[in-house]
Structure formats: structure tokens, C-alpha cells
Amino acid sequence: MDTPLREPTFLILTALAREPMHGYAIIGEVVGLSDGRLSLRPGTLYGALDRLTDAGLVELDREETVDGRLRRYYRLSPSGDATLAAETERLRRNVEAATARLRARRVQPLAPRTAGGLA
């Protein structure tokens, strides 16, 4: 995947990085990973999982019946793992660059403005 991942996609892949999960567990993990900023509705999550499966980033791990309902567990595919690693590195470099700029701005005082001129 050449384009940056949208935050919900990044967080879904991140949730699946540790172990296979079923849909409602993924929803809970995304809430936790985002400190409550992002809460996926089931329809949104399952649509995203379908797209991620079609893209080869996520795979069906297993299915089981719980209380008469089918529960599907998903896992990262090798391609999904590589995509998540690449996106994590891209974000790390961005944070590093922004942190360096903010640090440099705090260290160097702003040049005094001369009176009377328009900038």
C-alpha cells in the first residue's frame, strides 16, 4: 500500500498485530488504542474488514459458534504485517521531524521585528 493509511485502518491493523481477534474485540481494542477518540460501529468495522481482506492485509483466522452465533476471528496477513510496519515507520519519521522542528523553535528566539516595515 503506497498511500498513508487512514487512522481507523491503522488502528484495526494495530489491534490485530498481537493476536487474532473477533469483531467486537477489535472494536474494543480500537477504542483503547485511540484513548476513546475513535469508536467503530459494527457495520463500519465489518466493511473495513471486508476491504482489508480483499486487499490481502487481513485474513480469516477461524470461525466458531458462540451462543448460537457465528464468530469470525481475523488476523494480519504477512502483507498486512509489512504494511503496518511500513506505516509505523513512516509515522515515526514524521513525529521525529515535527519534534525536531518544535524543539528548534523553542531554542531559537524569534528575530525582533523592525518598526515601520510591512512584512
From TrEMBL:
<dbReference type="InterPro" id="IPR036390">
    <property type="entry name" value="WH_DNA-bd_sf"/>
</dbReference>
<dbReference type="InterPro" id="IPR005149">
    <property type="entry name" value="Tscrpt_reg_PadR_N"/>
</dbReference>
<dbReference type="Pfam" id="PF03551">
    <property type="entry name" value="PadR"/>
</dbReference>
<protein>
    <submittedName>
        <fullName>PadR family transcriptional regulator</fullName>
    </submittedName>
</protein>
<feature type="domain" description="Transcription regulator PadR N-terminal">
    <location>
        <begin position="12"/>
        <end position="85"/>
    </location>
</feature>
<dbReference type="InterPro" id="IPR052509">
    <property type="entry name" value="Metal_resp_DNA-bind_regulator"/>
</dbReference>
<dbReference type="InterPro" id="IPR036388">
    <property type="entry name" value="WH-like_DNA-bd_sf"/>
</dbReference>
